[in-house]
Amino acid sequence: MNEELKESIMGALELVIDPELGVDIVNLGLIYDLDLKEDGILTVTMTLTAMGCPLAGVIVDQVKAALNDIPEIKETEVNIVWTPAWTKDRMSRYAKIALGVQ
Q1: How far apart are CA 102 and CA 96, in angstroms?
Q2: Structure pTM?
Q3: pLDDT in tens, 5-22
Q4: Which of 73, 77, 75, 83 has its CA nearest to residue 60?
Q5: 22-51: per-residue pLDDT in tens?
Q6: Cα separation of the two ends of the chain
Q7: What Cα–Cα distance (Å) separates residue 83 from each residue in 16, 25, 34, 86, 91?
Q8: CA distance 44 to 30
């Protein structure tokens, strides 16, 4: 996947807001990997801030919806993983400021 397409995907994913924290999933550091196959199937490997998050299904649906308009992507699969575990160290400076995290 070229850098321009990756930037488009990450830009679209910045529109997906974690409903509990009110910050997008990219700045929270929840996106671990993007893998686009030649047949247009994109696998988004990501985590959530807490295991057993009741809004996991909502976030997965929002990820798929956010990527609908990118022509190179025919289908999106979301792979939720717990390793490596998410920590606040993965957050961008923007997210830390927005949430008041040191």
Answers
A1: 7
A2: 0.92
A3: 999 999 999 999 998 899
A4: 77
A5: 999 999 999 999 999 999 999 999 999 888
A6: 34
A7: 21, 17, 16, 8, 16
A8: 10
Domain residue extents for the chain? 3-99
Residue 68 pLDDT exceeds 80: yes
Count of H-run helices and E-run strands, the chain: 3, 3
- CATH 3.30.300.130 is held by the domain 3-99: yes
Give residue 68's identity as a one-letter amino acid code. N
Q: What residues contact 32, with CB distance under 8 A and at least 6 apart? A: 45, 46, 47, 81, 84
Q: Which residue has the tokens 């057993």?
A: 52
Distance CA 41, CA 72 (A): 9
